[in-house]
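Note to self: user wants both folds in one dump. Writing first protein now.
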Amino acid sequence: IITTVSFPSEICCDHSSDMSRARHSSRDIEFDLPGALDDMAGLASKAAIGHGARDVEVFGNGRQGRPAERQSCDVQPPPAASKKDTVVIISTNNPGRLMLFAALNPKLGEVIDWKTPADYGGFGGDEFAKVSPQKLCPVALTAGGLRLFESDVILSYVADKYAPLLENDCRGPTVEARALSALLVRVHDMYISGTNCSQPQFFSNQAVFYKAAMPGPERAARLKDLLKQLDLVESLLPPAGPYCVGDAISFADVVLYPTVAMMQDQAAASLVGSITEGRPKLAAWLAHCNADPRFRGVADKIKAFVDTFLGKAVAGITAKGCG
């Protein structure tokens, strides 16, 4: 959401990614946008929490345009460690889990430097390649010199390291709740937002409504599977809610919400249509989360990105269908 993932001291932000690409995580939305995004991102980043997030390009583990760059196999050494952990993000749905977790835990704004690719010369630059070996977002540079990527890995690291500062640890109150949360996260990361290939022309199921380069037959198959996975999520949600595993916010809420809100916000224009229609538990859960400004604030940033940079693509795909 190039319209920055603002991290005021109450809301920190960041793609995801998904439960570890090693596990086939979410690499999603690789928008091949013009290089001008890097400039705009610089403006957006000033509004964020330390250096807020500016969104550029990808909804998932943000992959940046220019295929030749994406295919590069050169892995650069990470820059020298700083006194604080640094998390580099953009306002898209997979990094959105970091944005939301930070919004639920405002003290993270005091201990983490939140940056965007614009702080490292943009996605296509050599400086960013030193920070992110796969040229994706999010990525974290720890105070101890470790370089981490994949949204789920970074989320786990932040939740573990800063546990004493958290108002909402999102771990789930019981063994069963934690297991259900982990299952929902895995369904999301593997079957909804995951691409599990960093090369050009590989897509996630969620990309059916905004990725124009996806071939028609593949779009039809992925749309069918996306709806199947949403039905599966519906079947896993508890009848009473109000959150994914019951009364407490869990990692499942933090991971699912940015993606579900993104798709539902585009329902009127998207090929997918309303994802809550015929899914009453999902609809009730989304309405409950939307009523919380911490959740909705993240969704609004993602919506702004999609509206601004993918609006024409979304409309064109809807008009054309899967043909």
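First done. Writing the second protein, which came from a different request thread.
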Amino acid sequence: RSPSYQRSSSRLPRSSRMGLKVVLACSLIASTTAFLATPAAPAALRGKQAISQRLTPSLGLRSPLLPAKLSASRSTATGALGLSAKVKAEYVWIGGRGGGGDDYRSKTRILDKMPKTVDELPLWNYDGSSTGQAPGEDSEVYLKPAFMCPDPMRSGDSILVLCEMLNPDMTPIPTNTRTAAAKIFEGHEAEEPWFGIEQEYTLFQDGVPLGWPKSTARPFGETSPLYQFGYPGPQGPYYCAVGYDVSFGRNIMEEHLDVCLAAGLEIGGTNGEVMPGQWEYQVGPCVGIDAGDQLHMSRYLLHRVCEDNGIVCSFDPKPIPGNWNGAGCHTNFSTKKMREDGGLAAITAACDAYGVNHEKHIKLYGAGNERRLTGDCETNSIDSFKYGVADRGASIRIPRFTDADGKGYLEDRRPASNMDPYVVTALIFDTGVLKGDTKAFDNIPSL
């Protein structure tokens, strides 16, 4: 880069950065092997709404991973006055643009006591005419709590509550894909569908990714727009890189990792990606609908962290055109049968089913995915389907050790970074394990 290039002003002061706790070890360097571990008491196996068991035993919801200033409980003044403690519940839902990650809404409700399970949380509502989800003359949309976890962004007794959006007759509104996905998983708990999702994202400031020039002026004597002061060199030096001139936005990644772990989310790892300003984290292994819940909550927290740092997070599948890797959401999948001896046969059978249903899946794997799945930059063409062992240019990759062991999991490399995790995980399960005939997502808007 040119010496005249100035690094983003969003970098944390040295004193603040020194205060962050180091939570990554070498074992957390990004690898899909992180998804081989058994899920920590996966939700589908613990019973309905048992996600609440992730809360601390005292239900104070404060994690030891949080800095002391975030771990403060209710004020001493409250206790001295003999006032009852209140609970801050942040109700989170998906807005009118759908589940692609760029439209989360939330508002706070004060509760008199800490709920033990999500079922104890009250219904609420919001103005759907202001989110593009209801007409003004009938604007109330119900919020039905579906998933809760500690809120690491607040002090005191605080929780995050992910909600389904319902009509007054309690049917799902069009942008609520969770209800349909949950029905697909329901009754098939014995299959133990595990998901590990690799969420890629790009960090922007002032309209450009971190590490890219803000000026469009070309140097004298050059005719190509690629020759700009500060323009990064060809991809290669940036993947999992360390250094001021090759790593951009690490403070965001670290803070996001901290808050996700403090919220009790199943984060498997994180790493810098191929394009400057691009990162990835992994969620899982999670079972069934829990995968979508946790990915959405982790995306919400990423936006909150970026908001506090003056950064914009993008899930666009091809933020920079040309010979740069796009941003995907590779989805690793297995069932109990696939993980047992001889499971490779079930894996290849699922891959064959995915090939037959390729067009159906691609339509629901994220908007703008055709800009990413070109056949270049570690992708297969959007117009064709193939699977292979250790092939990162395939639609479905079978890991080499899965092939060698005769059991394991598969990786669907087609989903874009802005995919709806409820739709994608349910489709993968339905096509690969069930009859593959669901039409639940045929008329979803914004996909």
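Dump finished. Worth passing along: The first helix runs from residue 14 to 19.
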